TrEMBL record:
It comes from Nostoc punctiforme (strain ATCC 29133 / PCC 73102). Residues 1-129 form the Response regulatory domain. The keyword Phosphoprotein applies. The modification 4-aspartylphosphate is found at residue 62. Keywords: Phosphoprotein. InterPro entries: CheY-like_superfamily, Sig_transdc_resp-reg_receiver, TCS_response_regulator. This is Response regulator receiver protein. GO terms for biological process: phosphorelay signal transduction system.
Length: 142
């Protein structure tokens, strides 16, 4: 399962379309702000009844989010035993070098800038899927 943390409806639709186009058929859960992402991951709020034994295989995390930005979400993830080793790919349009440095400093596994062109974006998603779901050895469940 993939947790897509994305507030922009157009980027959400592009990501879902690119996943489908590249036959990445994993279930995708979408969180539209940082607080909603943490509520999902820690079973709070509207997600209080969700099965906490099922965690994402991959988190695609935007940085510029309402309520709580992606870097703060990452900080919370890495501080908790239940989520500290979940694979997190920052998927953002930010070109700020400090975001790149902060993302890796906080424990992101990868940092990908969203290409503007759909075919390039689709190719980036294809490569992400190939790497994270075929080549990469996932960490054991905590």
């Amino acid at each position: 399962m993939i947790l897509l943390v994305e507030d922009n409806p157009d980027d959400e639709a592009l990501t879902l379309r690119a996943l489908k186009k590249n036959n990445i058929m994993n279930e995708v859960v979408v969180a539209r702000d940082g607080v909603q992402a943490l509520d999902y991951l820690f079973g709070k709020g509207v997600y209080a009844d969700r099965d906490m034994s099922v965690m994402p295989n991959l988190i695609l995390l935007d940085l510029k989010l309402p309520k709580m930005d992606g870097l703060e979400v990452l900080r919370h993830l890495r501080a908790d035993e239940r989520t500290k080793i979940l694979p997190v790919v920052i998927l953002t349009s930010s070109k700020e070098e400090q975001d790149l440095i902060n993302g890796y400093s906080l424990g992101a596994n990868s940092y990908v800038r969203k290409p503007v062109d759909f075919s390039q974006f689709s190719e980036a998603v294809r490569q992400l899927g190939l790497y994270w779901f075929v080549l990469n050895e996932s960490p054991p469940r905590v």
